[in-house]
Design brief:
Strand content: under 5%
Bound molecules: fe (ii) ion
Structural class: mainly alpha
Oligomer: single chain
Length: 325
């Protein structure tokens, strides 16, 4: 057997590296998609793995706050809708793990990092869902903020991520509408229902603004993400777009946005500063439900061990049957 090890990558010289790097930058500048088999700088790969994995984890952990209301939704119709929505989020997590796997990390590795508490996910999912109105506020505000963040990702320079986002965004749009519809019904209901909707807005407003990440002045990854067309807008730009879209919706509902500094300057809604110390605290593991969320994910993983073992045994049996045939 002649073997020349042609599948082994040759170490690249400085000249090759700069040529490849130039070609990569030109491709990104020309709005061409980068595909898994293309050469890419290590830093680009690392940036994407981190972002896509965090995004996938957020979809998976994001099932928990609303999952809390699946057995207590106020009608069969509401239960059906909520069930469909929570299942969509599971699907989003799975597409995104697949997209990240094309960059050379395994799903097992990502899941391990999540379960060990070493991976980050969106801080918003560490807040509790105390009333049914919270399911409305999550759909309206949290999925609304997710859409604002994710629509530009459909044009992300990395092909598999951009393509996954197209379908995800369509589903997020349904999520946002169902949340707004819950809020509309409650706001037009009894005084108690309207108060419940207001209370949910009071508790979810600021954490929703934090979903766009720290202010641009403090954000460490903005510049490179923008240059490589992973991000198209900065955190502050997206936050402003979200506030401009959402404040009129709150007014339509007859609810008050819990921000004494809110005012309209003729072009934009000017808003107060979120409590960034709270953001840091929740992100670093000390939010109201961080421990509960990780414990729930770990329990689900342990409870599902037999399914994974059965799937491996089934695949093995199938392979041995094929060998015999
Ligand atoms: Fe989602
Ligand atoms: Fe969603």
């Amino acid at each position: 057997m002649y073997t020349q090890g042609l599948d082994q990558a040759e170490p690249l010289g400085d000249e090759d590296l700069s040529r490849l790097s130039e070609r990569f930058e030109a491709k990104v500048a020309a709005e061409d998609k980068v595909e898994p088999t293309d050469w890419m700088p290590d830093a680009y790969r690392t940036l994407l793995v981190r972002q896509i994995a965090q995004h996938a984890h957020s979809e998976i952990v994001g099932m928990l706050p609303e999952g809390n209301w699946l057995s207590r939704a106020p009608s069969l119709r509401r239960k059906g809708i909520l069930l469909a929505k929570v299942q969509d989020e599971a699907g989003h997590g799975l597409y995104l793990y697949c997209a990240a796997e094309t960059l050379g990390i395994s799903r097992d590795e990502m899941v391990e990092q999540l379960l060990a508490g070493t991976a980050k996910y969106s801080s918003i999912f560490n807040y509790p869902t105390l009333t049914w109105a919270d399911c409305g506020a999550i759909g309206w505000l949290v999925d609304g903020a997710a859409i604002m963040n994710q629509v530009p990702l459909c044009r992300c320079s990395y092909g598999p991520y951009a393509r996954a986002m197209v379908r995800i965004c369509r589903e997020e749009s349904f999520h946002q509408r169902q949340g707004f519809e819950i809020m509309t019904v409650l706001s037009q209901g009894t005084p108690e229902q309207k108060a419940m909707a207001q209370d949910a807005l009071d508790r979810w407003w600021w954490p929703s603004l934090m979903m766009f990440g720290p202010p641009d002045a403090q954000s460490t990854h903005n510049d490179r993400s923008m240059r490589w067309k992973v991000k198209r807008f900065t955190n502050d730009e997206l936050r402003q777009k979200f506030v401009d879209m959402t404040v009129p919706q709150a007014h339509f509902l007859g609810l008050t946005v819990p921000d004494p500094d809110l005012s309209y300057n003729g072009e934009h809604w000017v808003f107060g500063e979120p409590d960034w110390s709270e953001f840091k605290r929740v992100l670093s593991g000390d939010g109201p439900c961080n421990r509960e969320r990780l414990a729930a994910r770990n329990k689900a993983h342990d409870d599902g061990a037999w399914v994974r073992e059965a799937a491996v045994a089934h695949a093995e049996k199938k392979r041995s049957r094929e060998r015999v045939a």
